Amino acid sequence: MKKCKFPKGWDEKRVRTVLAHYEQQTEEEAMAEDENAFSNRTRTSMEVPTQLVSKIRELIAKNKASQSV
Q1: CB atoms inside a 10 Å sphere around CB 20
Q2: 22-60, pLDDT tens digit by residue?
Q3: Is the dihedral of CA 30, 22, 6, 68 positive or negative?
Q4: Are residues 47 and 39 in contact, defined by beta-carbon separation less than 8 angstroms?
Q5: Long-range pairs, 4-9, Cβ under 8 A, ≥24
Q6: What is the spatial distance between Cα 56 and Cα 69, in angstroms, rounded to a whole number?
Q7: pTM above 0.90, yes or no
Q8: Rounded to whole angstroms, how far apart are CA atoms 17 and 13?
Q9: Sequence-ordered list of residues with C-beta below 8 angstroms from that of 56, at least 6 positions apart, any chain
């Protein structure tokens, strides 16, 4: 069997915790969580071409780095 590779800071326990959270949610709880995520006025969501994702991540990282100085 192939061994799983997790992103930095993640492990099997964390993945199982997240999965359990979403599997146990009612439909109403899921809808409320989605609505709450989009009500945050300090962030936005948008659809972008896949080939631009790495560039956008670079811009976000640069922005975070400049704010922490």
Answers
A1: 10
A2: 999 999 999 999 888 888 788 888 899 999 999 999 999
A3: positive
A4: no
A5: none
A6: 21
A7: no
A8: 6
A9: 48
